[in-house]
Amino acid sequence: MRHAWTRLWWLVPSLLIAACGPSQEPVASAEVGASTRPVLYPPPAPPSGNIVDSTAFLGPVGLNDAVQTRFTTNPQYLSFSFTVAAGAQVSLEVTHLGSSMYLDTGLFIYGPKNANGSYGTTVLAQDDDAGYGQLSKVASLTLAQGGEYLAVVSTGTGAGKQFRLALGCLNSACAQDDLFTACDLDVATRIEVCDESVVETQQVTPAQALPQCTDAQDAHNAWLAECAVPSGQKAWCANGEAAFTSRMWPVCKDFYQRYYGAGPLPLAALEDNDAINEARATGHTWCKTGENSCDEFLWTFNVPSIAGTQATQLDWVVEGAFAALPELSTDPRVQFTRYPNLTYADFASRIAWAFPDLGQVLPQELGNGTEVPQVAHFYDDPLVAAGAHDFHNLYIVYFPVSHRTAVFWLIQHEY
């Protein structure tokens, strides 16, 4: 709290007397990003151990966005959630713009939310008066762990006054990676509207029109339309234009390449995944034990898709996989035949004799935990020596919500 103290000597006795009286504000020590002044009204720790239960929860606040509301009682603790990726550096501020005059606030950050839905009661950062006047501000807070956090704005005397809480991203690591795996629907709509216009005015095919709607200027304009706005930014905007241009925009272009018949669906290789590699290595060791009974190959890709719309066709994913992996069709001895599609349970059971861990890990690492994967199955059994065959099973596992696929080629040797 900031107070204007006079320096008249005759007030000293009264100050000494007041200092002996009860404190009007709870005091807590400063945390990361906190002011050294006393903190105003932290929410009390509830019996549940989940701090949100001591607050009135009002929903999420987006990255590089703000929420505005009003206090109704004294004291009061209003909370808002926000979601970031690991390594995000954020700022939170009760801003002068949009907040009532002479409002006094406290600001507290908790989290991340655990598997049980609790934010806990440990304060990660807090502030009383680092903002304008008696408003609160955490200028910089680095969150090493990704997930959902809780910001609490409190007051002891602000009933009837409004405030505006702004959440900013200070680096290029705030938005979660899965926001870039599919093309944002509004961005995709811009491309489609442009393509239709070029087709109509120039009398060309959609595939021929596409390059005129997906160049660098189109990417920049799409970014401005979604991100250079005073409010309502998309969460992925927080990582900046370079991230959009290098990560999401190619996904948009690649999807429409196939959609408009300009070529197969381009699949983008995913970075190595430690859990998948470990599960594969366990099976590989089993294959190579004894008589070298099997070999395997595994690739993982992002599938160009449009967020919030119907999943990409499995046939397109299959086509894209064969285009991305020439080795699937360049060996003249192996001529794959497509068999009926499998359920994921069928796929996992068919590889369980050597790769049981892989069947469990793929949905955890590539899926969202609830989606139903689709599995295309290919097979061939060429003769490799007198009386001996190799049995080739090719599985293309598509996760239609997470927009990822795994291509697993398992070869069993006959002796």
From TrEMBL:
Signal sequence extent: 1-18
Domain of life: Bacteria
Protein keywords: Signal
Gene3D superfamilies: 2.60.120.380
Keyword Signal: yes
Protein name: Peptidase C-terminal archaeal/bacterial domain-containing protein
